[in-house]
Design goal:
Layout: H1 2-11, H2 15-21, H3 26-69
Length: 78
Amino acid sequence: MTVTAKVRTTQVTNSRTHRAQGKPRARERIAAERAARKRAEARRRLLLAIGAVTAVVAIVATLVTLKLTAAPAHLTAS
């Protein structure tokens, strides 16, 4: 009698443990997609900020270089 009880308990599978080994549930998949979108948006904002700072630094460097390499103005007495 105990042998049949053991057999019956091994035949019953828990759907939660079975599903954990297979593909994720819809809520888990949606949460993973949402997290991926959030990381991508944060990365995009960071790259945009870095690009803007780089552009400003490049413009300032160009203006400073032009000012330093320009010929000095000749003062003439009038």
